[in-house]
Design goal:
216 residues; 25% strand; single chain; Maf protein
Length: 216
């Protein structure tokens, strides 16, 4: 059984749309937010911690955990504390390019197998006026989203272009995730929904007894 160690409705939707069967088991611990760590280090740590917590509870299942954060000029931006903070974040991202990093950790604790990897996409915003920001917030709740925005839905109103994986910006890089799950024997109900190339399988193949990270 595949377990998704996340409460994120966006990750749940991405997995479901790709044809995977899974159960949601949300971790209880709080996410770490430490400015002394790099974007990759922090997302990797959060994904590992969330995944290991659930794997210890359900050692006979395959656990998938992920963490996504935004950074601009090396400064990590998490979820906004309130609407005022969300407005400040979007004003800062306005007309500029920032990075979105998702780290993924997959674990089969009973067989001492795991893999981890990260994906980084670059997102360029339109120039946003205060009115555009307020109109966007009428349609989208920014408070549960890293960077105070969502790429899907009304994302085109604020996003000019994305370089790299779109699903990574949503919250789970499905190209690499599908390949990695294949290595654990987890495939979609309809394999045509999420084809996996031989090269992708090799790039994120599981390890035995330790984790091996791969980066974009």
């Amino acid at each position: 059984m595949l377990l998704l160690a996340s409460n994120s409705p966006r990750r749940r939707q991405l997995l479901a749309e790709a044809g995977f069967q899974f159960e949601i088991v949300a971790p209880r611990g709080a996410e770490k937010f430490d400015v002394d760590l790099t974007l990759r280090e922090l997302t990797a740590w959060n994904a590992f911690r969330k995944g290991l917590e659930i794997a210890r509870r359900r050692p006979n299942d395959i656990v998938l955990a992920a963490d996504t954060l935004v950074a601009i000029e090396g400064e990590i931006i998490g979820k906004p504390r309130n609407l005022s903070d969300a407005r400040k974040i979007l004003r800062r991202l306005s007309g500029r390019t920032h990075e979105v990093c998702s780290s993924v950790f997959i674990c089969d604790l009973a067989r001492a197998r795991s893999t981890s990897f990260c994906e980084i996409s670059r997102v360029h915003f339109h120039r946003l006026t205060n009115r555009k920001i307020d109109n966007y917030f009428l349609k989208v709740d920014p408070l549960d989203k890293a960077g105070a925005y969502a790429a899907q839905g009304h994302g085109r109103e604020i996003i000019a272009r994305i370089t790299g994986s779109f699903t990574n910006v949503v919250g789970l890089p499905m190209e690499k995730t599908t390949a990695a799950l294949h290595g654990f024997g987890i495939v979609p109900n309809d394999s045509r929904l999420a084809p996996v190339s031989r090269r992708d399988r090799a790039r994120v193949s599981p390890t035995s007894g330790r984790s091996r990270g791969t980066t974009r």
